[in-house]
Amino acid sequence: MKIIAIALLLVTVVATAASSPPSPTAPPKHDPGIVPPEGTLQGGDTIETAVVIPSIPYSTTGTTAGYNDDYDEACPYTGSTSPDVVYAWTPPVSGHLEIHTCESGYDTKIYVYENAWTPGAPLACNDDSPDCTGLPYRSWIHVMPVTGGSTYYIVIDGYGGDFGEYILNIDEIVGPVPCDVLCPSGAFDENEPDCYDGYVDETNTGCGWPYVFQYPGLNTFICGTSGNFDDNTIRDMDWFEVTLAEPKMVNWCICADYPSRLWILDGRQGCSGMYTMVTVAGTPGFWACATLELDPGTYWFLASTDGWLGIPCGSEYVAILFEEGYSQTEQVSWGVVKAMYR
Hints:
2% of the residues lie in helices and 35% in strands. It contains one helix and 20 strands. It has a five-stranded mixed sheet, with no helix packed on it. A five-stranded mixed sheet has the order 10-11-20-15-18, with helices on one face. A hairpin with an 8-residue loop joins β16 and β17. The protein is elongated.
C-alpha cells in the first residue's frame, strides 16, 4: 500500500522551498506604538492581548499590517517574518471547529495553541490549503478538537514576509467527525496483497485458517486494504493482536471510503474461546471508534468491510489503535479521534 507522508487533516500544498527552522525563542519585544488602534476590527498583537471571540460561528475582517512578528510555526514552512494577530476562544463544551482564511488578500498561515504558547508544538497548523478554491496560498484547518473550558489562541500569520487584509471564519462541526484516508508517515503497513476470487489470506487471517496475526502495538496508525471476493461471499478481515501487561482504556478507530466494520475480541482463551466484546460499523468518510477498558491479557482488533456489498479488493483504510492518555502533537489526528470520546 502506498504510504502518503502527510499528517491527516493537515494537508499542505507548497510551491517553494522552506528555509531552515529557527530555534524556538521568546517572542521579540513589542512596540505598542505601531499596533493599530483598538476598535478597528483587528486581532490582538500577542496571546496576552488576544481579541476574545464572543461566540461561534464567528467571522471577522482585519489586517496584519502594522503588527509585530511574534510567532511562527512550520506547517510545513518556517522562517516567516510576517506580522501576526491573535484571537482567543474558550468553548463552553467540547467539540470540533473548522477555521479558514480562504477569502483573505494575501498568503496566510494559521496555527492554534491550546491554553499556552507551545512553540514547535501547536494543536493545529496550516499554510496552503488546496480547498480554498480559486485563491491559492490561503489556509484552512478542517477539523480541530476543542475541550470545554480550555482556551484556544488562533494566530493569523503570513508566509515569508507577506501581510495584508484577512477574513477569518470559524464554524462548529456538528455530528460525526469526517476523515480522509491518508496514511501518515511512520504508520504500520499491513502490506497484504489485494484479495481476488480464490484468494487465501496468509497475512493476517487471525482465527481463520491458517492462524496468522499481526502485531502493530499500541499507539499506532495502521494502513491496510480490504474488500469482497469469491462472488462477494467472503470479506477480507484483518486481525491485529495486542497483549496488555496491565489494565488500559483502549481505543480502536477506522477511517475508510467504504462501509467498514471494526471489532474488539477477547483472545485470552485462544481461538476456541474467543468472543466479540464490541463491534462498530463505519460510515464512508467518517471516523468510527470503539473504546473499552481492558484487563491484562491478549486481545484482537479486527478491520473489515461491513458485510458483502461488492466492495473492490484493495480498498484502503486507515486505523488507529491507542490507549487513553497517549499524546502525539505532531499528528493532530490523535487529538481529533480522542476528542470524540471525552
